[in-house]
Structure formats: structure tokens, C-alpha cells
Amino acid sequence: MGHSIALARGNENGRTSCSVSVDLSAQAPSFPFPDWTWGQCRVEEKDAVRTLNTLQTNASFLEQIKQERGNPQVQLEAMKDYLVRSGLQIEDLDRLKIIHVTGTKGKGSTCAFTERILRGYGLKTGFYSSPHLVQVRERIRINGEPISPELFTKYFWRLYHRLEETKDDTCVSMPPYFRFLTIMAFHVFLQEKVDLAVVEVGIGGAYDCTNIVRKPVVCGISSLGIDHTSILGDTIEKIAWQKAGIFKPGVPAFTVSQPDSPLEVLKDQARQLLCPLYLCPSLEAFEEEAQPLQLGLAGDHQRSNAALALQLARCWLQRQGHKGIGELRATRLTSQQSLPLAPVFHPTWIMKQGLWHTEWLGRTQVLRRGALTWYLDGAHTTSSIQAGIKWFRRAVLNQEKSINGPEVRVLLFNATGERDTAALLKLLQSCQFDYAVFCPNLTEMSPVGNADQQNFTVTLDHMLTRCLENQKQWNQLAEEKAGQDPWLAQAPEPSTGPLHGPLLLVPPAPRPLNTNSLVFSCISHALQWISQGRDPHFRPSSSPRGLHSHPVASSGAVLLKEASSIQVLVTGSLHLVGGVLKLLDPTLSQ
């Protein structure tokens, strides 16, 4: 078995079976913070993150989840046990006035829009999301900001020790990574007295540990598609059933336009659960002719997310008795999908400002650094990649109008898990990249100082093999597109053992390589080659070996150094995007 090493973030459920009572009047273990300096706080935070990483889901745990798909109550009961051991009851969560959101794509963006709108009304907001891009603290936000290192450390150790203290002969486990963070988020939001909590589902809905929430104020389902098939099912109808698992009796739910078959599943589940389900009108229905709504997140696909967010925010405000929530407007719209339409209303100034000022890193994000422009989008399904390509092409076209001189277009890609990489890469071929670069979701070769991005569930050997397979698929697609015979060579191997230092992975040469693709052993080395020292904010700590001996790397370096513009699309994985952001914008780690 290979060595485990830093990569990304764990994020799924496990289970235990036990019952334990906790004295809710007992004081939580005390964790004084009398005279901490910032440096001490950072050390304590790193210790907390390292301990948290020991709870990451391993392969056997994921297999257990798959086997238990038919019995969601087993997983939810386990989560309730953990919650009680932590000192909370299910009823306590009702006080959070939760907005619960799921979907295949766009659920995080929908949550971000919703939270930003409601914050504009002077409400203290909590926001729980996953995965994180740079630091695990990003998953738990108050008023749009990740909780501070001090708060993270305090609540982590308080919860960790409480769970340790409640172990006994029948209940010896700690909750896995994602469950632990979910419980921690509930504690943070309750103790910090937020007015509401926007909670993004981890995976699916019915079996997700966030689904222990009994009485959300409102629920939402963003666009559906195929993803996480080993856990959620291999058809969009099965996935729709999983997503509909967050519906609750009497709790309004909203969704966006969906294909007919999954929409029927949502409708049937809503009927069985006595949940009023509404279809969101498109964003155009809310716009005045001379005043289109401006969104802080780029891309046409964000419009359906914004439309859903408007309905979620307005419904929450209405159910909580708030005034000034937007007057209804007369409309002749009718639903074409056998669901009642949600109301069309005039968005308030606060709502418009919320949509415009929404920020959500790593989703259709652009960083301009001199000659380099980084286009960052964590798309990882076929439909989200298609949306990302549309956004990228439009953005590049606008940029090219002001460029004089040679341009170089680069793809930086990785995909993990069970995703159909060949399908994603085939779509990306249409962008006509000059170079395709592949690397694992590993910022540096050494995990030291990189605890927030550690993952003990995947070995380095496995990561590199996957990157080499991705490269081979790209080469085959490129040559087939050019009308040549597919590259029949075996998957390339590392030039030396993968753990012997920073490497450029070079393919064997039974025949010349006809496509410009490279594999690097970490994100830092990939960025170093792409940027060629031209990004003033990127300062690599080490250099990859073998660059001068690799024909594609050496010839490409010349073009990159001389180009007037370098356009880089980073996509395929939110974890990859997070690693790139960590290196390009060090302030995100502070």
C-alpha cells in the first residue's frame, strides 16, 4: 500500500450504534484563552485541524455507507446519538430557523446568494457549507466570514472532549469528519446566537447527516444531475429521490426547472410527505425591462441559482413575519411542469444588492495578474463543465479584444473519485487549449504546514496514477480529434519513485507524443511551469526536476515566457481550485 499524504478534504458520513444520555445542565469542559498571541492561536488551530483529520472517512467507511443506502434511519439515528452525546437535542436545532438546500450543481452558490440577501436585512447569519477551498474554517461562517481561529479552536476542543468523555463500552467511536463538523456548526450557531442558519447538504439529502433537522423554515433543491452514483444511485431519478429526502411535512420547498422524470420524482415525494413544493420562475420574471438584475457570480448558470435564492430568502422572511419583502407583481406565467409556480414579486433594493454583492470563491472566479489570467471553476460534472466552458469562452472572448500579441491557453485539470473523466475532458477539448496540465489535489510535495488540505484516504501512488490516466485520455481524445491513430503506449510512469522528491512525470517514448500535455506531482510545480515567474504573487518553495529534458515542457516554457497573454482554466475539482487559490492568494490562509 502507498503512503498517505495531503490532498484535499474528507466530507462524508459514517455511523455508530449506541444510546447515551448526557446531562444537558453540565458545563462543557473549560478551555481558557487568557493571553494567547496570534502565533499561539495558529499553533492551537493547526493542532485542532490535525486532530480533526484523524476522523476522515476511509474507504471501508464509504463502503459501509453504500451498503446502508436502503436504511437511512440507521445513519440518521447514529447522527442523533452523536448529537446527544455532544450535549444537544434534536429540538435545539429548531431554534436555528434553518434554510436547508441540496442539489447536484449550484447548491453552494444558491446558499451563498441566500445568505447574502438575508444578511442585508440586518440578520446575523450562520452558513454551513462543504467542501472548503483553503481552510476548514470556511465551512462554518457567521455573517459571511469564516469563524476565527480562536472560535474554531475553542469549539473544536470543547466538542472533541465532550464526545471523548461520553464514550463507554457500547459507544466507543467518534463521529467521522463531516458529521463532526456538522455537529460543531450547530454548536457554533447556537452559542453565537445567529438569527438563522443556511445549511448546505453534504451529499444527497435523505441519508445526509444534515437531515437530522426536523423543522427547517424552508427547503430548496437546485439543478439535478448525475454525481456520486455509488452512494446516490446511477440514474437521475434515484438521485432526485435522495435529494427529495430533505422535504418535511408542512415546510415549503422550492426547486428550479428540471428534466421531467426527476421533477416527477420530486413531486411524488413532496405529495407523500405533505410538503408544499413550488417551481421557481426564471430570473427574467423578476427583472424590469431597463434594469436587469446584476449577479456577483458570473455565468448564465448562476441565474437559476439566484432565482431559487430569491424565493428561499423571501419565504424565510415571510414565515418569520418580516415586512418589506417585495410586492407581488401581476404575471401571466404558467407552469409547464405540473408544479405550482412560486410567486413573482418585485425584488427589494436589499435583495438586489445581496445578489450583486455575493462572493463565492472558486466558482466562475477570475484572477488577473499581469499577462496571466486565471479562470477558476470547481465544476466536476458534465453539466457543470458545460456551463463552465460557456462562461470561460465568453470571458476569454471579451479579454481577447484588448490583447495585442501571442496568446497561450492552458488547461489545469484534475478529477477524483468515480467521475467519468473522459466525458469531462472530451467537453474541454472544444476550448482549443495549447497545453493541458494535470496534477493531484496536492499543493506541495510535503504536507508539513498544510493540515487544512490533508486527506488520509488516498495514497500518493493512486493520485499520480489517476493523473497519468487523465493525461492519456486527453492525448487519445486530441489525436482522435486530429484524425490520427490513438496513442497506444502504456500509461506513463514517474521518471523515478514518486516519493523521491519533486518530479515532473514524463512519459516513455515508444513514439513521439503528438499532444502538448504534462503531468506534475503537485499543484505548486504545475503553477510554476505555467506562470514562468510572471505571476508576482506566486512564490514557489521548490522547483520540479526534469523540465529542461522534457520537450513539451522546455518548448512550452519559451512560448509562455514570450506570450502577451496566458489564459489558464483551472477546473475538474473544487479541491484543485482550492489548492490553486491557496498558492496564488496567500492571504486566504491568514
Walk me through this protein's architecture.
With about 600 residues, the protein is α/β, with parallel strands linked by helices. The chain has two domains: about 70-355, UDP-N-acetylmuramoyl-L-alanine:D-glutamate ligase; about 365-590, Alpha-Beta Complex (Protein-Tyrosine Phosphatase, Chain A), CATH 3.90.190. It is built from 17 helices and 15 strands. Strands 4-3-2-5-1-6-7-8 form an eight-stranded mixed sheet, with helices on both faces. The radius of gyration is 24 Å and the shape is globular. It starts with about 35 loop residues before the first helix and ends in a 6-residue tail after the last helix. The relative contact order is 0.13. Mean pLDDT is about 85; it is low at about 1-40, about 485-500 and about 510-515. One of its GO terms (cellular component) is mitochondrial inner membrane. It catalyses: (6S)-5,6,7,8-tetrahydrofolyl-(gamma-L-Glu)(n) + L-glutamate + ATP = (6S)-5,6,7,8-tetrahydrofolyl-(gamma-L-Glu)(n+1) + ADP + phosphate + H(+). Belongs to the folylpolyglutamate synthase family. Pathway: Cofactor biosynthesis; tetrahydrofolylpolyglutamate biosynthesis. Its main location: cytoplasm.
